[in-house]
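Input (structure):
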């Protein structure tokens, strides 16, 4: 029987490897998100799960990823996205995910607020 990978493991090198595969502008945009998340939740662990970088604190807080034409911040909470609809105007939202581009990054305060709200949930 295969064992389930440890969800609480801390493997920042997995995220480093993920980021190294991206074009420079996408890598920079996601490195900025990573820096803000780590600053807001310094105790969180980092790992790749479901093929994307995930930040965890008891539970998965947020994730991030790069698509072909955009980057994404995965809030892991559709209800939070609905509650923050006003603040998210101007960004494309898909379920619990916010899409953005390196040219139009998410404001630092918005990322911090999402992480703080997720820590409360």
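Output (sequence):
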């Amino acid at each position: 029987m295969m064992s389930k990978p440890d969800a609480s493991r801390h493997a920042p090198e997995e995220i480093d490897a993920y980021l190294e595969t991206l074009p420079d502008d996408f890598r920079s945009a996601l490195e900025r998100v990573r820096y803000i998340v780590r600053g807001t939740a310094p105790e969180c662990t980092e790992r790749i799960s479901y093929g994307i970088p995930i930040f965890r604190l008891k539970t998965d807080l947020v994730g991030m990823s790069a698509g072909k034409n955009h980057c994404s911040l995965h809030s892991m909470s559709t209800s939070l996205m609905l509650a923050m609809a006003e603040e998210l105007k101007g960004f494309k939202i898909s379920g619990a995910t916010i899409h953005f581009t390196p040219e139009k990054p998410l404001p630092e305060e918005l990322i911090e607020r999402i992480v703080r709200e997720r820590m409360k949930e």
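Notes: The longest strand covers residues 59-66. The two ends are 33 Å apart (CA to CA).
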